[in-house]
Specification:
Helix content: 25-40%
Number of helices: 5
Strand order of the largest sheet: 1-2-3-4
Amino acid sequence: MSASEKLQQLVAAVNYGDIESIRDSIAADFYDYSTQPGEPDAARVFHEMARDLKVAMPDLELSVANLEGDGETIRGRLSMSGTKSGPLWGSPPSGAAFRWDVDIAVRPKGDRVAVAFEGIVLPEFLGTLRQLDLVPPPDQMDQPMRYPVSIPEILLKAIF
C-alpha cells in the first residue's frame, strides 16, 4: 500500500472514531527526527493529541487534499475541523468552531507512515490556538489566563 493510501486509510479511520488506529499507522520515528531514549515516539504523540482533540471535539473531522509526489514523499494539505464542546488541555468547552489547515509531508516507514507538518506560520497558528481558547486574544496577552492551560510540550516544540 502506498503512503498516500495509508494516509487516506488513517484519515478515514480517525473520522470513524478509531483513534487507536494511529498507533498502528504512524511510524515510531518522526518524519525528520529519531526519538531518543526516554522520549515519546511519534505514534504515541500523534495518538495522544488526537485523543485529546477528539474528547474536546467529538465531531472532529480530518480531510486531506492535493496529494502529490513520488512514491517516497507525498505532500498535501490536511484540514481539521470540529466544535469545541469538551475541555482541552485545561480550557473549558466553548462551543466554538475550530478549523486548521496545514501542509503535510508523508513518507513510508516500513508498514507505517511518518508525517510532518510543514510551513506552520506562527501568527496563523496562534490564531488556531485562540480558536481553541488556549491563548488569549491579542488585546489581552498581558493579562493572566482565566484558567490554567497546559499545551503539550511536543506541540510547543514543533511550533516554536
